[in-house]
Protein: D-glutamate deacylase
Amino acid sequence: MQTLLRGGRVVDPGTGFDGVADVLVSEGVITAVGAGLAQPPGCTVLDVTGLVVGPGFIDLHSHVHSIAGQRLQAMDGVTTALDLEAGLMPIERAYAEAAAQGRPLHYGFSASWGSARAQVLAGIEPDANIDSGLAVLGNLAWQRSSSARELAAWLSALDGELAAGALGIGVLLGYAPGTDPSEFLAVARLAAVAGVPTYTHVRELVEVDPGTPADGSEEIAIAAAETGAAMHHCHVNSTSGHHIDRVLGALDRSRAAGSRVTVEAYPYGAGSTAVGAAFIEPDRLRMKGLSPSSVVMLESGERIADEARLRQVRHSDPGAPCILEFLDEENPHERGMLHRALAFPDAIVASDALPVYWQDGSRDSTEWPLPSGGRTHPRTAGTYAKTLRLMVRESGAWTWLEAFRRCSYLPARVLDEVAPSARAKGHLAAGADADLVVLDPAAITDAATYFDPTRPSVGVRHLFVAGVPVVSEGQLRTDALPGRPVRGEPR
Structure:
């Protein structure tokens, strides 16, 4: 199967090229890029004049493990959706189940620190399921510090997952914020020895919780410096909130000193998590300058009225997904904080996309358009289109070349050491994987809102995954499930 994309504005962050050219795709690989390419016999030609052609977006932080959710991400320009912050366990089962079900996008998982600890400390057997993982987050049994024997046991479990092809270690430290900092250092040492990254939801900042065992932003910088591990700071916007400038300054200094810390952000002032998460406890909300009314239940749409109701919901259903509003996007000062997180040098765009839930209990659908009433966070459907609207179209803070560098090239480079196959992603040179997005630069925008979160983004005209059309002329191809696994090299 061959496709020639003719006459588009080709943007390749791998070489820095930004100009009108043709792109030839053959059997899942880009075989040529240049002006006036000859049309091979039997080749399909797409006229993409006036459109922008670039490498598909690589989402390092997506909890979408379903066809429905990945279709929303496809309409947002994503070609690879990886769950690296939380991960899944056992890793072999996670990859096997995704392959059996089929995926529109490429997929992959890290080794789950939370699941390994829950298995050893609380006797909870992991089942490679995102819903079970959310339920575990509110369980206090795994959130304590470990004995020397327990530490050795769950580190060994993580090492076994890495040996089976996990893409590094996902560390939900913010969900067990009282654990001994020496345990986090032990994880970083394991990652350094194995040559894999960590992906961390950091613990609270000292401004929010003066009693924290370690400041979240300082801790990840120190661990990277002491061990030499490559350490990825997840959603710096949501974990830093009003203290974003102090956090970005600390991370900038650590990187200047040689620490291998990468950073990601998304363009929303509200995050999503399980309502039983430690940082949604009423006292901790007050420390953040927030209140129970900052919490909205995802499935019902209920905005929590008071502390009594919040405690009730946390007790009765700690795994229930919710939205936590941490910045007011209508406030120019707070909107500026969000902008600075995205604009931070080399910050990667990542969605923290959530599964789509329906009130009848279903968690997936093969219908398209999706059935009405689906609940998720709007970033599942709109992260990349909203970022492009804000940073390229409206503010001019980024060129298209810089946008593709942040959304495609840099995230692929985070994976280079653990997954050599990633070296063929995030750029458009001959020999690269044919994961391509073709978008309308004047129309690209998000459509999802907090109250209508499953509206697909607008402006992605074509999307190719492994050379297979998943979006054609702005329409999703429901017959396309070309996603392939992205895995670490088994040891």
User: Anything to note?
Assistant: The chain has a mean pLDDT of 95. Residues 57-421 form a domain with the TIM Barrel fold (CATH 3.20.20.140). The longest strand covers residues 2-12. The chain has two domains: 2-55+424-476, 57-421.
